[in-house]
């Protein structure tokens, strides 16, 4: 995926245009479009936290967050679905997963 910014002096100062280009509409393009749409709808109060888990980026909804804990150089993120541990050495690894929505 290539990401770049191109200034366009013909646009109004408060206007931003985003175009997603791909050879075909694939899963990655759909994910980018979904993330952009969710970001645009952020006024609804639904914000997301991106976490790198097992070499994939997952988006954790703010309403799913239970707690965040910092111990020395490690951040643990507790959600309704799982617990994630973030350290500068191994990014984020899934610590545990909640089964049937209970902790």
- What is the radius of gyration computed over CA atoms, rounded to a whole number of angstroms? 17 Å
Q: Strands of the largest sheet, in order across it?
A: 3-4-5-6
Proportion of residues in extended strands: 35-45%
**Main sheet record:** 4 strands, antiparallel
Short précis:
The protein is 14% helix and 37% strand.
What does this structure look like?
The protein is mostly beta strands. It has a domain at 48-90. It contains one helix and six strands; from the N terminus they run αββββββ. A four-stranded antiparallel β-sheet has the order 3-4-5-6, with no helix packed on it. The chain is elongated. It starts with 26 loop residues before the first helix and ends in a 6-residue tail after the last strand. Mean pLDDT is 78; it is low at 98-103.
Topology record:
Layout: H1 27-40, E1 48-53, E2 56-61, E3 65-71, E4 74-79, E5 82-87, E6 91-97
Antiparallel strand pairs: 1-2, 3-4, 4-5, 5-6
Defining key terms:
1 helix, four-stranded antiparallel β-sheet, 6 strands
């Amino acid at each position: 995926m290539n990401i770049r910014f191109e200034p366009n002096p013909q646009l109004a100062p408060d206007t931003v245009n985003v175009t997603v280009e791909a050879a075909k509409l694939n899963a990655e393009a759909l994910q980018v479009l979904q993330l952009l749409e969710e970001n645009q709808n952020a006024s609804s109060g639904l914000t997301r936290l991106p976490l790198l888990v097992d070499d994939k980026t997952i988006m954790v909804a703010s309403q799913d967050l239970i707690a965040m804990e910092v111990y020395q150089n490690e951040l643990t993120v507790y959600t309704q679905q799982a617990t994630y541990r973030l350290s500068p050495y191994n990014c984020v690894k899934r610590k545990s997963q909640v089964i049937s929505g209970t902790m």
